[in-house]
Write a structure and sequence with these properties.
123 residues; mainly alpha; 2 domains; 6 helices
Length: 123
């Protein structure tokens, strides 16, 4: 009976066109989710991962990652993300997260990822 009445009401003149199916609602949900994610992302950037977030200041954060469409193994993409953010086993990062007592390497200099690659590599 309910279906019969619903169909009759749907066919009446001036009946409202109310969105109700997932195909109709999903585009709007997607926009809302993206907007909320962006707000949270930039709020988090104010207090955490400042070096990492510097990379995003001038990027248009789309729905796909920077590696989308690349035919590369996951370990390579993960390694590149760690290098970009400085989250790797260099003395400066280990000191920052409280694993070591000092950011200095055995040569006595602060050893971060940039110095590791650009100044010298200790064998």
């Amino acid at each position: 009976m309910a279906d019969l009445l619903a169909n009759r009401g749907r066919l009446l003149p001036n009946s409202p066109n109310i969105k109700g199916g997932p195909q109709e609602l999903w585009p709007e949900y997607k926009k809302i989710i993206k907007r909320k994610w962006m707000e949270e992302f930039w709020n988090l950037a104010k207090t955490k991962g400042k070096v990492y977030f510097e990379y995003f200041k001038f990027l248009n954060l789309g729905t796909e990652g920077w590696f989308h469409g690349m035919d590369r193994p996951r370990w390579l993409i993960t390694t590149l993300n760690c290098l970009r953010s400085g989250h790797c086993s260099v003395p400066a990062h280990l000191h920052k997260i409280g694993i070591t007592d000092s950011p200095l390497c055995s040569c006595g200099e602060v050893r971060d990822i940039q110095i590791f690659f650009y100044v010298r590599i200790i064998y």
